[in-house]
Write a structure and sequence with these properties.
- There is one protein chain.
- The chain contains five helices and 29 strands.
- It is mainly beta.
- The strands form six sheets. Strands 6, 7, 8, 9, 10, 16, 17, 26, 27, 28 and 29 form an eleven-stranded mixed beta sheet that branches.
- It is about 10% helix and about 50% strand.
- The protein has four domains: about 1-85, Galactose-binding domain-like (Jelly Rolls, Sandwich), CATH 2.60.120.260; about 95-250, Phage tail protein beta-alpha-beta fold, CATH 3.55.50.30; about 255-275 and about 400-454, no CATH class; about 280-390, no CATH class.
- The chain has helices at about 170-175, 190-200, 210, 225-235, 385-395; strands at about 1-20, 25-35, 40-45, 50-70, 85, 95-105, 115-125, 135-140, 145-160, 160-170, 185-190, 205, 215-220, 235-240, 245-250, 255-260, 270-275, 280-290, 295-300, 300-310, 315-320, 320-325, 330-335, 340-360, 370-375, 400-405, 420, 430-440, 445-454.
- A hairpin with a 2-residue loop joins strand 2 and strand 3 (about 40-45).
Length: about 450
């Protein structure tokens, strides 16, 4: 007997069990009873026929279940349960999937972080209706290898037993959670800040070379994806969740890792040549506490308020109220409403400086093309030269390979990798993979790749 008690009322379309998958041993007869308090509200027998089995029975508002396992499919074995899921597990294979497209991308400048997506259409003969819930996990596998874990973002039923589903990766889920409240940092290890941003929602794997990289500067209140991008730019990292069960923080690659030969490149591929940048201007930010006291908030109210600041503030004080919590970006305050509450503080001074790298060469008859990079709050005088050099090298790249290539998902190229690709023209291109659009076929994976290089 297995009994599970919940801290509150639950509703689910059923219960799924993962039995002993290694030895193909499972319970082939069980009974489930659902309770609300001391009252039994439902009971049903089930007869599993595989090591992963969903007991379909929609029950609302229960707080306790009892499962009695009567029999195993093999004699003289122990009952082994790897997982019990309060919901149902669905498998969609070639016979029900009409199409499946995965979009992966990375901003190689480090100024933003892509949200990878998966889109698929299902046509099924199963009479049991599917219910796709927001943030429901979707595990995508191909030939035994994991292509990624995605989470339902949108779904639509547009014909009988036909569904269209759009899902996002872990970065996309983070983008729809509470804002990160930011802070002011002084040689704080990057790993510590990254874990604060993610907040334990997902596992994070950080390269040893980056975990203790010192971070100095300001992070304003923002979406968590934006805050992670600020970290990535400052420490030279690629942050993404493609083809993995966690968020990975890895060092921006510097060496060629793979060669994509002509036998893997479709003849329809093309090479675009963009007008080159002649230089960059990077604005560094160096913060010091100012001397001027500024009025941050003034009002008469009763209860609690959270006051968010548009600039970092230090030495915060209050009149006719109480500060319950505060940091450089916000203050949570309370007041009785008997008098006007006034919040004051000393804003930080942002001492800015430009770092300019210019090639000094331009094509006759053309103008300079300078990329200005301003809102990088963690770029300070100690790291600005290195960050500027990295960005300059990126913006010098003129050649853009845009074509279809064949991939082996178990040992293949990933976004951010440096590769040499055969173009079918006079010379190959060595560059980094910016985007991959994966179409999973019966025999292989065809990917539309964008590689920026040379």
């Amino acid at each position: 007997m297995l009994e599970v008690k919940f801290g509150g009322l639950q509703s689910s379309p059923g219960i799924a069990f993962y039995f002993d998958r290694e030895n193909n041993v499972y319970c082939d007869w069980l009974n489930v009873r659902w309770f609300r308090g001391s009252t039994q509200i439902d009971s049903k027998d089930f007869y599993p026929d595989s090591v992963i089995f969903s007991c379909l029975n929609k029950v609302d508002l229960y707080d306790r279940i009892q499962v009695k396992f009567h029999r195993l499919n093999m004699p003289c074995r122990y009952l082994r349960i790897e997982a019990a899921i309060f919901g149902i597990v669905r498998f969609f294979a070639d016979n029900s999937l009409e199409n499946l497209t995965i979009n992966e991308g990375v901003d190689l400048s480090g100024r933003s972080i892509y949200i990878n997506t998966a889109k698929f259409t299902i046509s099924t003969k199963d009479p049991v209706p599917y219910l796709f819930l927001k943030r429901q996990p979707i595990y995508i596998k191909y030939n035994g290898g994991q292509v990624g874990v995605y989470y339902v973002d949108k779904s639509k039923k547009y014909a009988d037993r036909r569904y269209a589903v759009e899902a996002v990766d872990k970065i996309g889920v983070l983008d729809n959670t509470d804002e990160f409240l930011g802070g002011m940092y002084d040689n704080t290890p990057a790993g510590e800040i990254i874990h604060d941003i993610v907040g334990g929602i997902f596992d994070v794997v950080i390269d040893d070379s980056l975990r203790n990289a010192p971070v100095t500067g300001w992070l304003p209140i923002s979406k968590k994806r934006i805050a992670l991008a600020q970290i990535a730019l400052a420490i030279g990292a690629v942050i993404d969740a493609s083809r993995t069960g966690e968020i990975k923080v890895r060092k921006m690659p510097e060496q060629v890792s793979k060669i994509i030969g002509k036998d893997r490149v479709y003849t329809s591929s093309s090479v675009d040549i963009t007008f080159p940048y002649t230089g960059i201007e990077l604005i560094e930010h160096n913060y010091t506490v100012g001397a001027e006291i500024k009025e941050l908030f003034k009002d008469t109210f009763s209860g609690q308020k959270i006051i968010k600041f548009s600039e970092p503030v230090s030495n915060i004080t209050i009149s006719n109220g109480m500060i319950l919590e505060m940091d450089v970006n916000f203050a949570r305050i309370s007041s009785t409403g008997t008098a006007e509450c006034v919040l004051r503080g000393r804003p930080y001074i942002d001492n800015q400086n430009s770092v300019i790298i210019n090639s000094g060469a331009s094509i006759e008859g053309t103008q300079e093309k300078i990329e200005k990079i301003e809102k990088c709050w963690l770029v300070n005088r100690h790291i600005s030269a290195a960050v500027a050099e990295r960005l300059y090298n990126y913006y010098l790249r003129q050649y853009l390979f845009n074509g279809d290539i064949l991939l082996d998902i178990n040992d293949t190229e990933k976004i951010g990798d440096i590769v040499t690709v055969a173009t079918g023209f006079e010379e190959d291109i060595t560059g980094q993979i910016e985007k991959l659009t994966l179409n999973l076929g019966y025999k292989n994976i065809k990917a539309r790749g964008i590689i920026r290089g040379n």
